[in-house]
Amino acid sequence: MLGPEADLDAVVLARAGLTRIDRADAVTETLDPMLMLPAPAQGALAVECRLDDTDLVELLALLDHAPSRAAVTAERAMLATLEAGCSAPVAAYAELAEGEHGDEIYLRGAVISPDGTHEVRLSRTGTPADAAEIGKALAAELLDLGADSILGPQGHDGPGTQQFGSTE
Q1: Strands, DSSP E only, in the chain?
Q2: I need a labelling partner for 105 at 20 to 30 A (CA). Which of 116, 125, 134, 160 fits?
Q3: CB 150 within 8 A of CB 113
Q4: Residue 127 lies in a domain
């Protein structure tokens, strides 16, 4: 049953989506990513075009946001190194901040069993230029601590699946 008569305890929706449909006033709470890490690369948008369309490539370059690109690169590199698909119980959140020696990327990652009884959580920092390596290194640490046993075969991309894109 849907609508006001539905028997629901809670509904979690994307704040951006509610804002887009002019319903931001309906938001009663925003989940802090430190409380609940999102899935890797949530909210990232991409635009593709032909490489030989140099005018469009130049125009689209204006939309590229380097801090967002670094964060998404780190998160996706972690996911790819875990060999986990988009429905795996993997969370990642990267953000850039001012460090002692310039910009620094801070990546938090977690692998959590579907029933919530087992989890591995870690974080790693480095420079935005090393975003992919930070993601790969964090995934390796998660695996060393048993993330692969939490993921199991259902967490990995299996036969018949194709992963598109790059984490580099």
Answers
A1: 90-99, 102-112, 119-126
A2: 116
A3: yes
A4: yes
